Amino acid sequence: MFKKILVANRGEIALRVICACKELGIRAVAIYSDADRNSLHVRFADEAICIGPPQLALSYLNIPAVISAAEIANVDAIHPGYGLLSENANFAEVCETCGIKFIGPTPDVIRLMGEKEKARAAMKKHGVPILPGSEGVIGSEGEALEWAREVGFPVIVKASAGGGGRGMRIVRSEDELPKLFRQAQSEASAAFGNGDLYMEKYVENPRHIEFQVLADEHGNVVSLGERECSIQRRHQKLLEESPSVMVTPELRAQIGGILSKTLSAVGYQNAGTVEFLMGADGKLHFIEMNTRIQVEHPVTEMVTDVDLVKSQLMIAAGAKMEEVLQGPVVHRGHAIECRINAEHPEKFTPSAGKITTFNPPGGTGVRIDTAAYAEGTIPPYYDSLIAKLIVRGKDRNEAISRMGRALEMFIVEGIYTTIPLHRRILADAEFRAGKIDTGFIERFLAKGK
Ligand code: MV4
Asked: Does 313 share its domain with 370?
């Protein structure tokens, strides 16, 4: 096992990784910017190194600064958390060159999954269901029109280097294709420095369902079931659950089996998330794969009792899956996560500042992942996520009532948060009935509740 690792992140996820290190007897080294001097990830790490000023590009995204800290602390490995450098293949490569283990897939596989149309082709080749669409990058507007006619309108044009909704256009008819194609292309070039596009059949108001996988470095891959992530706003997830009410044990086993074979064949290693869309037909269609630990990983941990971050560390140290899991994966009960963001309730704009009161709930089946505390300050430079409130119940109804009472007892003062929004979502009849898809939040907000 590693003796010492560097946690290349901040906030709740840095603390989450430090928890796993402590339980495995690994020394954790924190890095921090000038804005994070008083953060809990600094306090609870065994060592901490300041890597620069608050701006991301000068601190947490500054590869030479991060690598220098790792060299100075003489760590065996780096855990990148989520966001920041977590899906940067070049960073993973630099780690490798410096003899530091990157806790995640190999640079080649990160790169493959980062090129969405290549990931799509790889999944298709191994039998993962995908949506009808173009093959490879679309060369011209003329070619786009040919594919659209073959696939049938509506279609969606996506950036190959994309994700998070940028460089994406829904095209409902032939006449609007040229304009929307050019818009997607220039948006993708500006955002990613790469204007490559591909096309898929558009699914109206799909459900967003993703599968968690773990892969060891000996070719063994297991699926830990799915998470329902349809409740999103502007491509930011707000609430996630596991399992999905729409996934039967048969479908879970079928997709899990296909993913195990596919990911073993592509040489996947460590934790990963495979995203699917489910349309009205109830079928799952692959859209993208994320090569990092995700924000919503705790809902899977709550229903499987598998510690995904400890698993990541063990896998990266060479452990075999049987040692990591110690038995078959079983799913028990239902888990829900609410993302508590520091943001204005109506405007959804970030709300930085000093937290005056911080009273998180506790009790049976309640988990909170956070680095926030009373009298602590939320700096304006970073992601607005300040806490994750996760509950588990014996079934969805128990999880919903438990989350309702936990939200009622979660008091944060001094800054605005999404707690009041979550209280209203939990009370919504459609949500309670499981009638959720990616159009949920828009319909919910239109109801004016
Ligand atoms: C789609 C789609 C419908 N059909 N692809 C949005 C983010 C990107 N990762 C994929 N996205 C979508 N791809 C096809 N073929 C609808 C979306 C989409 C969406 C997906 C998941 C969660 C929320 C969403 C909100 C709007 C659109």
From this structure: yes
Question: Count of CB atoms within 10 A of residue 201's CB?
Answer: 17
Cβ < 6 A, ligand 1 pocket: 131, 156, 163, 165, 200-203, 206, 208, 232, 235, 277, 287-288, 438
Residue 70 structure tokens: 């790792």
Closest C-alpha residue for ligand 1 atom 21: 208
Ligand 1 atom with the smallest distance to the CA of 204 is 3
Tokens of 79: 């855990």
Taking a C-beta distance cutoff of 8 angstroms, is the pair 269, 369 a contact? no
Domain count, the chain: 3
Number of residues that this document lists for the chain? 449
The DSSP annotation for 207-226 comes to EEEEEEEEE-TTS-EEEEEE
Task: Give me the domain span that covers residue 31.
Answer: 4-103
**Is-contact 335 320, C-beta < 8 A?**
no
pLDDT tens, position by position, 356-391? 999 999 999 999 999 999 999 999 999 999 999 999
Residue 31, in any domain of the structure: yes
Task: Tell me, yes or no, whether 178 and 229 share the same domain.
Answer: no
Pocket test for ligand 1, best of 123, 198, 208, 240 (most atoms within 8 A of CB): 208
Q: Are residues 369 and 287 in the same domain?
A: yes
pLDDT above 90: residue 163? no
CATH number at residue 140: 3.30.1490.20
Cβ neighbours around 294 below 10 Å, total:
23
One domain for residues 98 and 174: no
Please provide the average confidence, as pLDDT, over all residues in the chain: 97
